[in-house]
Each structure stands twice: as structure tokens, then as C-alpha cells.
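Recap from last week: sequence in, structure out.
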Amino acid sequence: MPAPRQGLSELLERNAVRATPRRLEVLEELARERDDVTAQQLWSRLRERDSAAGLATVYRTLALLSEKGVVDVLSHHGGEQCYRLCGDAHHHHLLCERCHRVVEIQECGLDDWVAAAAKQHGFVATDHRVEIVGLCADCR
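Predicted C-alpha cells:
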């Protein structure tokens, strides 16, 4: 069930993104997705709903939403970027390589390891993302 438009508008505002009708339309469609979706798939779904949003608009909107941290970008669809509306809290993803199911993992015990690995190489870690690719229980 998609999030109410008001909630999506507030999400955009919290992330310093102006809530235009097209951006809200793209975000509403993305909110309907249980797992993740490519820009092409999202555009096709919008067209089925008689949207006038062009493919370039969908790509630009998803790029902006990703840049501002509103959506997560995953890369398990054969190299094509996939987009997912996730929670605000720090999390990682389990990705099924067969059915493309996505599960958010809230627990993260990596902070100490990430800091140590970064320090060993002269880095200061500011963030980390983990995608664990495999097969879900239904696909095994």
C-alpha cells in the first residue's frame, strides 16, 4: 500500500527536495513496490496509469532522490540500477539474485570493523552500505 501523498511530501521536504507533482507521482509509484524497481520498470508502470511523465523525467527524479538520500540504489539487476524507498534508519540489504526480493536488515555490527579497515588504509569512514546477494528461501 503506497504511503499517503502528504507523508511523501513531508519526506521530500525533510530531505530538501521540492515536492513537485511529477516527483510525488514517481515517489508514489515507487512506494507501491515491495522490493525494488528499475527506472524503465517504474516508467512503464506510470504509463499504465496514464501518466505523462517521460522516461528522462523518471531518471532525473530518481537520480535526485538518490542524491538526497530519499531512495536507495541497488545494483543486482544485471548491472542496471534499481531503486527502493527504504526507511530512514541505517540498514543493509539482502538481495535475491533469482526473484529480486529485497529485505532490509536493521541490525549492523560492522561499525568497529569498518572504522578499523578504514584507519588501516588512512581513511576516515563516514558511511557504509552492504548488499548481500544470494537466494531467498522461496528460490532455494
